[in-house]
């Protein structure tokens, strides 16, 4: 084929100026998303190509992907188009280093046979870091044409990365075709609420612009009458006007011309082709694109020379893009040609295309893209390939794509001997995007599963999916029934199931309270996985049912000591870390939490890492290290995907919200916690913790009655579930304060006395001291408050509150010197642990009592927050910003902000001066 000149870009000055502005913003470090949308033929692709081939190509790395109907099948097909060319260079290892490692599962030819735990989220996070690594080398422009046709995993990554790449010079440039036809839900709808998304809608061409377009496109210059008529008929749509002007019947029917006539025009062209030309066009529509003209010849049975002549003819008409691979010049052309094929012809060519591609050694997903379009035929070969493609998709972190392959395999259908296995695999994969379908399939097939490990896996997955759908009783029943059925043949598998059954039962009801509290776990063995899970479950139950803290902590510590280090990252073990934290065994909790975090980072277990970081933040919060707690909680925020709107997300946001509230940042806490929808189930401890923090926020902003009502509702759920631990979800503490604000002293005293009784049962100084302080506040008893401050020496945040209450009560009684002493101590403690909100309250009360107080250092090392100190330490040790971001799982912008703030506080100008300052 000969060379073709690049079409002139007409009437697009405003759009180009807008794109230039967006590129400048992104290059300055403000990641942007630009969506260019409009009807077919308006010139979206031409606009984007003209822009990215211009000056931006000299200042940024431009990566491109083109999406079409057949590109929806491969897992991460759009992402692979974008990044594979980048990895062909010498920087491959650098780009895939650290957290970006799991991106290799997508970008290499062979997916992992055994994908990492939580592969979907590990891959999303790895691809995000790959993009971040690439952007650190210079501005990055990611162009996705027809993004609405991208595969689901790629769109999932686009959303995940687009919301996290703040501070990186990345421009996402997407095109989307709008249509007046009935269309499925818009996969790009989330962009409408993204403040960083710019929307560009190219306008229709002016009459003058359309005249220039037709002059360039037609063999003979158009008459002014033809140009005017085409403009009136099409409104200035370039593709429609061009097709109309080339249609012999067009000039006679201009008054009736609509966009629907475009399809008639294409069919008219096809009718005038030779038989070989029509076959070539139909086969290319089936393939979507083709890099080998010989494949088209074999598919159609045509001579290779006839195929080349047909392709050249379509190119001369402007229907194909120049060069290889052979591709339609506009997706609408392929759709029209494909739709005019008969069902039998489509089926025959798709099956034949699959066979030819398989014989040629094409990627499995390319073969299966055609098998999915062919009619079911009870073909074992088809089932085998579809199952193989599903395995590959799972290995690439795309269970939704795997579920599609397996659903098609079930429709084939598979041989009877393979049916159960295919149903199981489909149900497990479908849980990621279609929990209801997953539940239906797995419940139906569970009794037929003979393999014990498979039954264990299915029962656990089914219980988790049922819980996520608010069907906890069914989840508990599934685990219990499976445990009973395997007790005789596979006792340790049964123990694992029984342990999980107990944990879930304890989470949702008080039915096993007496049994758990009466069980002495001191002699329980923990040599096997099942025994360890049983011990974890018992410690979990004792913690929630408020057994003595010392007994509970001993069980939790035994379970953690017996667990291999490689298994600590499992989210199951966060319950043991939580029990140690509530029992004030903070050093031990931090030790095992740090080990679990390190293990989760090694294995790229993103949800597990996020949950362990949240629990580590709670350990720091209990220790009175709020800045450190915020650092851990912030890392969890960066990691946990929005899709995990369950237990993990509730705990993570609840802990982070608590830290922000204690720092005096209620508005930020409110924004953070409202990012999560109301939970499906209200009886999981994480959901109630989240709700209690929301109630605290309401109280902080003055809605005391509403906040109290929410706290009492949380308390009712906790009581019903038998969760009496006063530390796990301290709703009583906040309810007592709200009641006193509302002058409901009698109820406040009753609740404080109840809290003290439960605290003595739990037995930690923190719990007892907090309850004593509440009762002293409610009754005005200074002796109780003095006893409380004595108990709370190891709980700085709670000590600060008790001292504030003591100072306020002393001031109210006129003992100002004693009040000032208590308030100064409260201020010193609050400043030391970073509780900004409590420190502000202490300053206000101290000033009202006539006291003086030191101002917080504005410069030097003491002025640095814990988060700033950690970043400065790493920078002083020679870490680059990129390595700091990877080490702490922060965005580059967050690292840069911490450093710039630290430079100002330290009175230095550059990184070179840090070692001397940071010591």
Automatic annotation (TrEMBL):
The alphabetized UniProt keywords are: ATP-binding, DNA-binding, Nucleotide-binding
Q: Please list the residue ranges annotated as the HTH luxR-type domain.
A: 857-919
List the GO molecular function terms: adenylate cyclase activity; ATP binding; DNA binding
In its UniProt record, which GO terms are filed under biological process? regulation of DNA-templated transcription
Task: Fetch the SUPFAM superfamilies from UniProt.
Answer: C-terminal effector domain of the bipartite response regulators (SSF46894), P-loop containing nucleoside triphosphate hydrolases (SSF52540)
Kindly list any coiled-coil regions of this protein. Answer: none
Any one GO CC term of this protein is: cytoplasm
Which superkingdom heads the taxonomic lineage of this protein's source? Bacteria
In terms of InterPro entries, this protein maps to:
AAA_16, P-loop_NTPase, Sig_transdc_resp-reg_C-effctor, TPR-like_helical_dom_sf, Tscrpt_reg_LuxR_C, WH-like_DNA-bd_sf
Q: Which PANTHER family match?
A: TESTICULAR SOLUBLE ADENYLYL CYCLASE, TRANSCRIPTIONAL ACTIVATOR DOMAIN
Write the protein's name. DNA-binding CsgD family transcriptional regulator
Organism encoding this protein: Crossiella cryophila
Q: What is the lineage of its organism?
A: Bacteria, Bacillati, Actinomycetota, Actinomycetes, Pseudonocardiales
């Amino acid at each position: 084929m000969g060379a073709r000149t690049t079409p002139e870009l007409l009437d697009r000055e405003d759009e180009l100026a807008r794109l230039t502005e967006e590129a400048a913003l992104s290059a300055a470090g403000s990641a942007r998303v630009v969506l260019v949308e409009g009807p077919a033929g308006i010139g979206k692709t031409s606009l984007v190509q003209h822009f990215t081939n211009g000056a931006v190509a000299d200042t940024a790395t431009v990566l491109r992907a083109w999406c079409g109907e057949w590109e929806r099948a491969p897992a991460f097909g759009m992402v692979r188009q974008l990044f594979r060319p980048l990895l062909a260079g010498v920087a491959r290892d650098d780009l895939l280093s650290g957290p970006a490692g799991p991106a290799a599962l997508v970008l290499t030819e062979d997916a992992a046979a055994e994908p990492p735990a939580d592969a979907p989220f590990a891959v999303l996070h790895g691809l995000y870091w790959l993009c971040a690594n690439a952007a650190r080398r210079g501005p990055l422009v990611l162009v996705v044409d027809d993004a609405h046709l991208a595969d689901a995993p790629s769109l999932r990554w686009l959303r995940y990365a687009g919301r996290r790449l703040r501070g990186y010079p990345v421009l996402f440039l997407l095109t989307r075709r709008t249509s007046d036809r009935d269309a499925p839900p818009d996969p790009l709808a989330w962009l409408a609420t993204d403040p960083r998304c710019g929307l560009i809608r190219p306008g229709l061409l002016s009459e003058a612009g359309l005249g220039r377009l037709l002059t360039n496109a037609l063999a003979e210059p158009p008459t002014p009458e033809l140009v005017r008529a085409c403009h009136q008929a099409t409104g200035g749509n370039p593709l429609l006007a061009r097709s109309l002007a080339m249609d012999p019947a067009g000039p006679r029917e201009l008054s009736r011309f609509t966009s629907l006539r475009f399809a008639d025009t294409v069919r008219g062209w096809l009718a005038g082709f030779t038989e070989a030309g029509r076959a070539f066009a139909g086969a290319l529509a089936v393939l979507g694109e083709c890099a080998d003209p010989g494949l088209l010849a074999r598919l159609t049975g045509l001579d290779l020379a006839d195929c080349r002549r047909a392709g050249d003819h379509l190119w001369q008409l402007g229907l194909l893009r120049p060069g290889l691979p052979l591709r339609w010049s506009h997706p609408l052309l392929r759709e029209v040609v494909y739709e005019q094929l008969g069902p039998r012809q489509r089926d025959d060519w798709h099956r034949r295309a699959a066979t030819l591609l398989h014989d040629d050694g094409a990627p499995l997903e390319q073969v299966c893209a055609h098998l999915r379009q062919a009619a079911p035929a009870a073909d074992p070969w088809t089932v085998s390939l579809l199952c193989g493609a599903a395995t590959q998709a799972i290995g690439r972190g795309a269970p939704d794509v795997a579920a599609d392959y397996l659903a098609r395999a079930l429709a084939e259908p598979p041989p009877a001997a393979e049916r159960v296995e295919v149903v199981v695999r489909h149900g497990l994969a479908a849980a990621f995007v279609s929990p209801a379908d997953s539940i239906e399939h797995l419940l139906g097939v569970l009794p037929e599963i003979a393999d014990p490990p498979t039954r264990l896996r299915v029962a656990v997955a089914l219980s988790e999916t049922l819980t996520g759908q608010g069907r906890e009783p069914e989840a508990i029943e599934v685990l219990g029934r499976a445990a009973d059925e395997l007790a005789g043949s596979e006792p340790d598998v049964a123990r694992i199931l029984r342990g999980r059954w107990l944990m879930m039962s304890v989470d949702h009801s008080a039915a096993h309270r007496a049994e758990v509290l009466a069980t002495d776990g001191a002699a329980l063995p923990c040599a096997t996985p099942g025994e360890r899970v049983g011990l974890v479950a018992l410690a979990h139950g004792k913690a929630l049912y408020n057994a003595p803290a010392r007994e509970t902590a001993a069980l939790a510590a035994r379970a953690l000591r017996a667990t291999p280090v490689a298994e600590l990252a499992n989210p199951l073990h966060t319950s043991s870390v939580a029990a140690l934290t509530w029992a004030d065994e903070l050093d031990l909790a931090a030790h095992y939490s740090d080990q679990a975090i390190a293990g989760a980072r090694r294995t790229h277990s993103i949800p597990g890492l996020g949950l362990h970081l949240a629990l580590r933040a709670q350990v720091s919060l209990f220790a009175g290290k709020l800045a450190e707690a915020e650092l851990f909680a912030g890392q969890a925020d960066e990691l946990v995907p929005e899709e995990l709107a369950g237990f993990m997300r509730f705990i993570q946001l609840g802990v982070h919200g608590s830290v922000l509230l204690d720092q005096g940042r209620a508005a930020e806490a409110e924004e953070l916690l409202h990012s999560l929808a109301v939970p499906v189930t209200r009886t999981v401890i994480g959901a109630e913790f989240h709700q209690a923090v929301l109630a605290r926020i309401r109280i902080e902003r003055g809605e005391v009655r509403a906040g109290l009502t929410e706290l009492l509702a949380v308390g009712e759920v906790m009581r019903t579930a038998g969760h009496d631990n006063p530390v796990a979800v301290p709703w009583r503490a906040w309810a007592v304060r709200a009641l006193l604000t509302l002058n409901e002293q009698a109820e406040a005293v009753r609740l404080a006395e109840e809290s003290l009784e439960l605290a003595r049962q739990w037995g930690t100084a923190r719990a007892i001291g907090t309850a004593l302080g509440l009762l002293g506040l409610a009754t005005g008893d200074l002796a109780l408050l003095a006893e409380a401050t004595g108990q709370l020496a190891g709980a700085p945040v709670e000590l600060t509150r008790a001292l504030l209450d003591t100072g306020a009560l002393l001031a109210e009684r006129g003992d100002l010197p004693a009040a000032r002493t208590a308030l100064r101590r409260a201020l010193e403690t609050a400043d030391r642990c970073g509780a900004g909100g409590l420190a502000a309250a202490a300053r206000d009360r101290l000033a009202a009592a006539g006291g003086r107080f030191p101002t917080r250092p504005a410069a030097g090392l003491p002025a640095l927050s814990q988060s700033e100190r950690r970043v400065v330490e790493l920078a002083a040790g020679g870490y680059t910003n990129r390595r700091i971001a990877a080490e702490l799982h922060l965005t580059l912008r967050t690292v840069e902000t911490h450093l710039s703030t630290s430079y100002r506080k330290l009175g230095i100008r550059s990184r070179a001066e840090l070692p001397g300052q940071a010591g």
